[in-house]
């Protein structure tokens, strides 16, 4: 599903391609109860929207021969689709406000932005998982287990800019 993408001003971040907010594993884990409820809702609404769209497409295929109850259902589906889209927009806005990104809405997979080896990455979680145990690079669906030493020896602060590290070297 496309849509609900953030509009960002080009060059707004000092680090090209970096999210506006970076999170440590501890911060992401603390947010997990709230984000988990939102992700559950996101998955539920996305599945409901997909089902309504499929039903609507079936009715559209035969719209000229529809009976009045079928036509009525088609109109009701339009309203239900609009309502689900509105709910999705609200859920995306809630996650965006928390600094969390939706990676796969169908499964409820969300990403907590971070940096790994100076590359944009996410701590990723989806409904059904009990802990925040995976990470992945941005644009890569290959989820990897979070190494134990990342949890035992967390960074004090995630550097969000390569420019500031260059300035320190001068």
Describe the structure.
It is a single chain. With 170 residues, this protein is of the alpha+beta class. Helices cover 48% and strands 15% of the residues. It contains four helices and five strands. Strands 1-2-3-4-5 form a five-stranded antiparallel beta sheet. A hairpin with a 4-residue loop joins strand 1 and strand 2. Helix 1 runs antiparallel to helix 2. The longest helix has 37 residues. It is elongated, with a radius of gyration of 20 Å. The N terminus and C terminus are likely disordered.
What class would the helix/strand composition place it in?
alpha+beta
CA-atom Rg in angstroms: 20 Å
What separation lies between the terminal Cα atoms?
46 Å
As laid out across the biggest beta sheet, the strand order is 1-2-3-4-5
**Order of secondary-structure elements:** HHEEEEEHH
What is the number of strand segments?
5
Largest sheet: 5 strands, antiparallel
Please, what is the average pLDDT?
82
Low-confidence stretches: 1-19, 161-170
Put simply, the count of helices is: 4
User: In percent, how much strand structure appears in the residues?
Assistant: 5-15%
Q: What percentage of residues falls in helices of 4 or more residues? A: 40-55%
What coarse outline follows from CA principal-axis ratios? Answer: elongated
